């Protein structure tokens, strides 16, 4: 390695898109009975993957091998699991288990030595049950859960490397990420498209796509407009109340 490789490229940032989260499926009664812990209701997989999904696959993300810049992913599970700290040193960076409850999973990403970057820590709430309109999990009967299909909970993120060393920059540029599709190509799982109504699942697998950026921008803009409108309504209400208060004070003063 030459000395120039250990020089930081100042003023440059480069990023790699990832997703992290989990998928969960309900176990049949036969599968539950065969487990050493028959109270377990779901089989789930928590993972860190590239954002783009493989073509012609039901997997969410994972089109690219991330081991060219990730050395290890550590998943800290609930303490009730045997060996709750799971170190995964090669792809796929994921852990599959069975269980009955939802809990917070701590995810630590350790980068290769060439990156000279600190460990990155993420938090993910393990999701076993479908989302509802209220944002609370709803536990459907077993036959409904089996019919509704897998439950997905994934978060998109971008790992940004600022002022990278030249040798690490060379490594990153030699492995460009698979571009996200420009638009949605796969049907959304029914229970995600229709929160709180999952009795007739249409199947489908979530997929991250470039159009989600504009969709999120539209949602944020709508939320901003609603906040502005609500702020204006409250402001007018306050002005009206203050006017009524001044009128009451004046009447009291005149009466005195």
Automatic annotation (TrEMBL):
Cytoplasm keyword on record: yes
Domain called YEATS: residue spans: 8-175
Protein's UniProt keywords contain Glycosyltransferase: no
Gene Ontology terms: biological process: chromatin organization; DNA repair; regulation of DNA-templated transcription
CDD domains: YEATS_Yaf9_like (cd16908)
Cellular component per GO, a single term: cytoplasm
Keywords, sorted A to Z: Activator, Chromatin regulator, Coiled coil, Cytoplasm, DNA damage, DNA repair, Nucleus, Transcription, Transcription regulation
TM annotation in the entry: none
Pfam families: YEATS (PF03366)
Domain of life: Eukaryota
Subcellular location per the Swiss-Prot or TrEMBL entry: Nucleus; Cytoplasm
PROSITE patterns registered for this protein in UniProt: YEATS
Subunit and partners: Component of the SWR1 chromatin-remodeling complex and of the NuA4 histone acetyltransferase complex.
Domain characteristics, as noted in the entry: The coiled-coil domain is required for assembly into the NuA4 complex.
Name this protein carries in UniProt: Protein AF-9 homolog
Source species of the chain: Candolleomyces aberdarensis
Underlying gene: YAF9
């Amino acid at each position: 390695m030459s000395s120039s490789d250990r020089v930081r490229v100042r003023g440059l940032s480069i990023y790699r898109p990832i997703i992290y989260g989990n998928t969960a499926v309900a176990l049949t009664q036969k599968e539950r009975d065969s487990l050493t812990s028959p109270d377990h209701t779901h089989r789930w997989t928590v993972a860190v993957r590239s954002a783009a999904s493989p073509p012609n696959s039901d997997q969410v993300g994972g089109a690219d091998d991330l081991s060219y810049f990730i050395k290890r992913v550590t998943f800290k599970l609930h303490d009730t699991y045997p060996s709750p700290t799971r170190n995964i040193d090669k792809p796929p960076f994921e852990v599959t288990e069975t269980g009955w409850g939802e809990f917070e999973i701590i995810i630590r990403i350790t980068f290769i030595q060439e990156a000279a970057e600190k460990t990155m820590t993420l938090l993910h709430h393990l999701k076993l049950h479908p989302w509802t309109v209220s944002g609370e999990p709803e536990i459907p009967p077993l036959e409904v859960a089996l019919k509704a299909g897998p439950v997905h909970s994934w978060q998109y993120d971008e790992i940004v490397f600022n002022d990278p060393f030249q040798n690490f920059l060379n490594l990153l540029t030699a492995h460009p990420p698979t571009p996200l599709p420009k638009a949605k190509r796969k049907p959304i799982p029914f229970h995600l498209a229709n929160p709180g109504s999952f009795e007739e699942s249409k199947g489908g697998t979530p997929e991250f796509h470039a159009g989600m950026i504009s969709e999120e921008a539209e949602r944020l803009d709508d939320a901003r407009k609603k906040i502005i409108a609500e702020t204006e309504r409250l402001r007018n209400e306050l002005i009206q109340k203050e006017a009524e208060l001044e009128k009451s004070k004046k009447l009291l003063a005149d009466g005195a």
